[in-house]
Each structure stands twice: as C-alpha cells, then as structure tokens.
Write a structure and sequence with these properties.
There is one protein chain. By secondary structure, this protein is an alpha+beta fold. The protein is built from four helices and seven strands; from the N terminus they run ααββααβββββ. The protein has helices spanning 2-11, 15-39, 71-90, 95-123, and strands at residues 50-51, 57-58, 138-143, 153-159, 162-170, 181-187, 193-197. The strands form two sheets. A five-stranded mixed β-barrel has the order 3-4-5-7-6. The radius of gyration is 29 Å and the shape is rod-shaped.
Amino acid sequence: MVLLDIGSWWNGLMTVEKIYWGIAILASIFFLIQLVITFMGADADVDMEMDLSTDMEVEMDHGMGFQFFTLKNLLGFFTLFGWTGLGCLDMGLSLFPTLAISSASGLVMMTIMATIFYFMSQMTDSGTINMKNAIGQTGTVYLVIPAKRAAIGKVSLEIQGRNMEMNAITDDETEIPTGGVVVVSQVINNGLLLVKRQ
C-alpha cells in the first residue's frame, strides 16, 4: 500500500521535480555518510583524488590550503541545491528562478564548508617540527658542550610539546657541563643548535 502511494506520488511529479528529488535524496545520503566518517576521524587518508577533464585537481580535505572543490563541499552543494530547489518549486517559482536560487544556495554552502575546513586544518598540528621554534627555548645539557665550538655536545629540550635531544655547540668561553641550563640562540644547518649558558 505504501509502495503504491509512493509510486503514484512519484508519477504525479513533473520531470524537474523528479530531478530535484533525486539530487536531494542521493546527495543527502552521501553527505550524511561523509559527515559520519569525518567525525569518526577515519577520512584522513581515505579521501581520494579525482582528476577532472580539465587539469583541475579535486583534492579532498586533507590538505592545508583553502580548497573549494572537494568531495565534502560538492556533496554540500548538491544537498542544499536539491532541497532549496524543491522548496522553490513548492512555492510555485518557475524553472529559471529555481535554478538560480538553488545554485546560489549551493555555492553559499560550498563557501561556508570550505571556510570551516580551512580553519579546522589550520588548528590541527601537522606533526612536523619547525626547528626555528627552538630559538629562545631553555634546555638542559645532556652531553658536555665544549667551549668556542670546539666540538658538539647534546641538549635536552622541548620543541612544540615534544622532548628532544639535539646536537649543540656554544660560543661561550668555557664548556657547559652536563646538567647545565642553556638557552638556544640560533639554529644552524641540519638542526644543530647554538646555545649559551643561561
């Protein structure tokens, strides 16, 4: 009985309404699936890359930059496009105003989502250590640092929340013994630190 009601309802729709219903339902289902996967944190490497016929690359939301054409954003576009279009048709608008309003709504949704994911990506830690963040940090000498850059010692310090042991040299006139407290004044090539006694 329910299937007959759905069938008669579907047959009573205009072609444009059928198209909008198809887009709205399919996009909503895939959008919800993608949303659940995102909040479960499982899409970091699952997101694939697609090449369009032009050389534009559709890259998923794993990157760092502002990405407008992503799978999530396109699903958001079609979801809002479909439901807005159905609302416009229900209000009695003709095809062209419906297309214009639903397209504009979809683009607004894409822009909002791209902005949200951009700021979310800026808040996440990439995990890459930037050695310049060591400058000004205080550390403890782990292996004696000879005076006047005579040889390399080691210091233990925290960089970006990680405890690390790094090679270090000093311009101080006397060696800095194990357990001495130093401050990083410069990062030389290959992560070698120039330190001075605090």
